[in-house]
Every structure is written in structure tokens, then in C-alpha cells.
Amino acid sequence: MNNPFVALVPLAPLAVVGRVFLAFLANLGRVSIFTGKSLSAVVTPPFYWRLCLQQTMTIGYYSLPVVGMTALFTGAVLALQIYLGSSRFGAESAVPNIVVVGLTRELGPVLAGLMLGGRVGAAIAAELGTMKVTEQLDALITLQTNPFRYLVVPRLVAATITTPILVLVADIIGVMGGYLVGIHQLGFNSTVYLKNTYDFMEPMDVASGLVKAAVFGFLIALMGCYHGFNSRGGAQGVGKATTDAVVSSLILILIANYLVTTAFFDQ
Amino acid sequence: MTGNFTAPPRLEIIDVHKSFGPKIVLNGLNLALAKGESIVVIGGSGTGKSVMLKCVLGLLHPEQGQIRIDGEDTVNLRGADHERILTKFGMLFQSAALFDSLTVWENVAFGLIEGAGMEREQARAIAVDKLSKVGMGKDMAEADPAGLSGGMRKRVGLARAIATEPDIIFFDEPTTGLDPIMGDVINNLITECVQDLGATTLTISHDMSSARTIANRVAMLYDGRIIWAGGVDQIDHCENEFVDQFIHGREEGPFALEVS
User: Fold this and answer.
1) Number of domains chain B contains
2) What is chain B's alpha carbon radius of gyration, rounded to the nearest angstrom?
3) In the beta sheet, which residues pair with residue B67?
4) pLDDT in the model for residue B260
5) pLDDT (tens digit per residue) in A5-36
6) Within a domain: A110
7) Predicted local confidence at residue A248, as pLDDT
8) Residue of A137, A143, A149, A229 to mutate for B, most B C-beta atoms under 10 A
């Protein structure tokens, strides 16, 4: 018996690659359509201001402790590590300069983004996923309410606006963390440390970090909403949506971080 | 409840087909409801009852066929046009689908506030009135839906479904998950509320006791189409073997052959 498909067996791995690639494109298409619908809902009435304010509290205010703690200890460790490294070639005085640049440009927005990706992204996906599997999204539609305007827009707007504010606070707390270690543990003069910090910091350092934060906030809310809206089944489906939302938002944050950094500082 | 069978149908489902991949769920479904009529669609699990309801509500889009509301084909309506049709509908979901982030009265008033743009105070008064119609006092208005029993959630869902006084009300398994007494309470509440409004209703259910209380006509959905329809008083004497097996809950019969 001559099976004509036997000749195709060596191509099987390529078929797998093809399937994976097609699945990736299909997902990209679905996310793009979801993003388009969300952005269209952002600029078309009705606007649910009360919900936007509510989400600003949930996403921004209640995330302050976790972001603040992260920034405080990151700033402290950063000062310590830079001191240990720079002392090998007698450049200890660079500690305040590197701490402030490192925090405002990179560690502040990225670590705050990662913490928010875990806290906020998971919460949004779990809440909307539960609404999906308990038919609450269908109920919204039957009550003549567009779920994109009612659920997605407030979360997107709140996350995009509050994440830069959180990062600004994180920058200040992080620099304070470095300052405390510098003064009490590394023996820096308080005035000199603060003057070096202030003199070395440029507006663009802070601005780039805040732009990154806005992009990260948007991505976190978008992934939370997308995976929540597309959850299936019961508790397991909601759990998977939550995991997918966190993983995808964290990966997108790292990719977006590179792209925004390139846009700002590429010579 | 009696329907006006001389007027054009309030809801008409014409040759509707719906598939999910290779799985054909609705296969040429036809059904018509006269104004004021109350029909219960019965059928086994997975026969497409919920899909039919979602197609009528515009939550799913059939590949073929028409769904006419007061003569207007709604299958291709989107956005504001779809929302205009939805103002004619009320819906009681199987799980009640109450919004956990809102209080009981806010759930009932949701369609009035967000859909019809009514002031909150006015909507609250209507919500409290509707809650009293389903046997829930003012003290329950501020309650959290998560703390309610299954029967109470259904009552709140029913109050929400009738709050905007819609022309057509859909009930998805209204008594599923309730004890027989609470099921009877819900059936009677549905009958009373619908009579008060003069609404047309489409109910999907497994519960024959519910069908006998609510319906003036029963239809059986099988294999993606209606295989029998008739008055509720005819159901015990119909010669359709699927209906006969279903209403008597027997293992032996054409359904059992499929399972084996």
C-alpha cells in the first residue's frame, strides 16, 4: 500500500509551527478588535464618570501600599548595591545620581507596572470573568448597556491616569529609600546626597517614566478586560483568564518598556 | 393568559440556523408568538433552547433565517438599533445574573437608570414597587444580592425583568435550582406579573409543572427545530413519542436510543 501522506511526514514539525503561528495571528486579531472597540467606546457617550472615579480609587488609591513598599525597598537595595559596586573603583559618590536615574527611568515604572499587573490585572480579569460566566455581561446588554462603555472604559481610563501618579509617588518613595540607606548605613552627608540627587535628575528622566507608566496602566487594564470578557466555563475558566491576564500584561509591559525607552533615548 | 392570534406575530423566528464549528445547534427553527401569548419551549439539555434565546436577544447571530419583532427583522441590527429593540425586552436569567456590585434596588432599577435615563430617585421608587410585587419588602431594597437565597435572587431578577414594563419577557429556566414550593411561588409570580403587564412571554424550561402553570402553548425543541407545538391542555394527549417520553420523564424512548 502506498500512502501518499507518508511523504509529508517530515513536514509535520512545520505544520505544528504553522498552527502555532496561525493561532498567534488569530489572537492578535482578536486583541486588536477588542482594543479598537474599547478605544471607540472611550470617545463615545454615555460616559460613566462615577464608575471612572470608583475604579480610580480601586486601581490607584488601594494600590498605593504595595507600590510604595516595593519602591521603598527597591530604592534601598539599589543604593546598597550601587555603593558596593562603585566602591570597587572609588566612585561611591555616584550613588544618589544612579539611584535617581535608575528609579525614575526604569525601576519605578517597571516595578510598579509589574506589581499592578499582578494586583490590578488579576482583579479585573477575575471580576469580569465571573461576570461573563454568570451571564452578567449578557444581562448588561439586555438592559441596553454597552459592556465596553460600562465596564472596560472606566478601568482603562482609571488605570491609564492613575498608574503615572502611582509611579510618581513610587519615584519619590524609592529615592527616599535610597536616601535613608545612604545616610544611615553608608555614611553619606544628607545635604550632599539630596543636592546630588536633585542636580543629576533631568525632567526627561521623570517624563519618560511617567509615559511608560501610562502605557503600562493601559496594557494592564486592557489585558484584564480582554481575558475577563473571553473567559469560558466555570471557576476553572475564570482562573485561566486571571492567569492569562497577568502573564500577558507582564510580558507586554516588558516589551513596551523596551519600545518606549527606545523612542525616548535612542540616539 | 390568552394570545391575540389574529394580529401579526409579536415575535417570529423563521428558518433560523446556528452552528458552532461543525456542531449544528439550530437547524431551521420556526416559531411564532402572538401578542399576549405565553409559550414554553421544552427540550432536553443541549438541544439549543438557550442558543435560541440568545439569538432572539441578539447576543448570538444566526447564520441564516430571520427573527422578527413586531414585523421588523432584527438579525442584522447592531448598536443603537439593537438597543432600541432591547427596550421591548425583559429577561430573567437562569442564575438571575444580578450585579454583585449593586444593591437589590439598583439591580431592579438598572434598566430604568442606564437604559431609559431615568433619575435615580424616581427609578428607586419604581424598583421598590416592583420588589413589592414579587413579595420583597422595602427593607430588602438596600440588601447585597450576594447574601440572597436562590429564590430571592430569582424574585429580584423577575422584578428587574418587569421593571421597564417590556412588551416581551423571556424566562430562562425560571425554576431551576429551586425547591418545588419556591418554584411554584416563582411560577405564580411570573403569571401574575405577566398578566398585569399584558406581555408576551417566551420561557425555556425542563420543568413540566412550570410549563403547565405559565404557558398557554408548549413547543418541543429537538435536533435544532420545533418538532411539536400545541396548547398546554393537549400535551398529555399528544402522540409525539419525544414529547410523551419527555413529559413523563421515562428512560425508555427515542431519547434513550440516542444516549445508547
Assistant:
1) 1
2) 18
3) B13
4) 40
5) 677 677 788 888 999 999 999 999 999 999 99
6) yes
7) 96
8) A143
For residue B6, tell me if it sits in a domain: yes
Domain membership flag for residue A155: yes
SS3 content of chain A, % helix, strand, coil (to 5): 85, 0, 15
Do B115 and A139 make contact, defined as CB atoms within 8 angstroms?
no
The pTM (predicted TM-score) of the whole model is 0.89
Tens of pLDDT, residue by residue over A55-89, are 999 999 999 999 999 999 999 999 999 999 998 98
Residue B127 domain-assigned? no
In angstroms, the separation between the Cα of residue B112 and the nearest Cα of chain A is: 9
Which residues in chain A are closer than 8 Å to B94, comparing Cβ atoms?
135
Residues in Cβ contact with A149 at an 8 Å cutoff, skipping those fewer than 6 apart: A41, A44, A46, A47, A48
For residue A258, what are the domain limits? 47-262
Structural domain that includes position B205:
1-88+167-176+199-260
Residue range A93-109, pLDDT digits in tens: 899 999 999 999 999 99
For position B69, which CATH number holds?
Answer: 3.40.50.300
Query: What three-state secondary structure class fits B146?
Result: helix
Q: Please give the tally of structural domains in chain A.
A: 1
Instruction: Extract the residue ranges of chain B whose pLDDT is less than 70.
Output: 1-7, 256-260
Question: Among positive and negative, which fits the CA dihedral A250, A251, A254, A256?
Answer: negative
> A44 at the B interface (CB within 8 A)?
no
A165: in domain: yes
